[in-house]
Write a structure and sequence with these properties.
mainly beta; three-stranded antiparallel sheet; Invasin; IAT_beta; Intimin-Invasin_domain
Amino acid sequence: MVVGEINDSAQHWLSSYGTARVQLNLNDDFSLEGSSVDLLVPLYDDKKSLLFSQLGMRNKDSRNTVNLGAGVRTVQDNWMYGVNAFYDRDMTGKNDRVGFGVEAWTDYLKLSANSYLALTDWHQSRDFADYNERPANGYDLRAEAYLPAYPQLGGKLMFEQYRGDEVALFGKDDRQKNPYAVTAGINYTPIPLITIGAEHRAGKGSRNDSSISMQLNYRLGESWQAQIDPSAVAASRTLAGSRYDLVERNNQIVLEYQKQTLIQLALPDQMTGSAFETIKVDAQVTAKYGLERIDWDSASLVAAGGMVIQTSSQSISLKLPLLWLAIITTP
């Protein structure tokens, strides 16, 4: 009897561990780019309300990204409503952002919306020389549905948009201004442990791509037999069976890029002087790779009898001629 109580306690403790998911993606180039692992851990659950944390890690475009989130879900009648917040960290490129999401789920249907806000400002890009990068601000709207008569088969529809002049929604080498995309996909879950999916994404300017994915969905605390039982798939599509499902959002940070100003020169707006007076002109120069020299156009001044003397790489002295208009302006 004591052993039975211990087993019951252990089972209850393990079941509170939530859901783990490992996703293996296969893209157009037959690469595993974009694969990931995520874990949802319940912190408090009274069957009416659920407080949880969600952790994730992924690799894409040779960047390692970590996601840390928390959320609340509550059941009202036949719907479950949720809110969540995430902190996303691009460990490789040192980019940070936050995200906020809302959820509305019922049997065989999931609706959600997410927003993404940059925390990191412009800084040197690791992808391109002479470019800055930062997270792009954006949002997405998602819907997932399953067939009640055949719950192994499901579909997905998503709209997403990001703001910025050079946003890499379709990859760092295909940047667009304020890009958007619509994604449609289907998935098949023969047993609770495995989900196979295919998606096609079409966006602004006729951009498009496709991907095939395989997910390993492991519900911690459930028996191995339950993980591979085909008849258990139907229960996972109901509200009661999906309360520990992971938050669906874009865990990969979409980046915006900006061409750096490599060199910038500024001169005084206006200078005045008398005939035969010597005026010093200093150029204010900002140059990423340093300044070798400035070529001054002084032909008209010299032709009028004036003189130009180079005093440094960024300064000259002007000796004004007798009949020179002693007001010098710059655009």
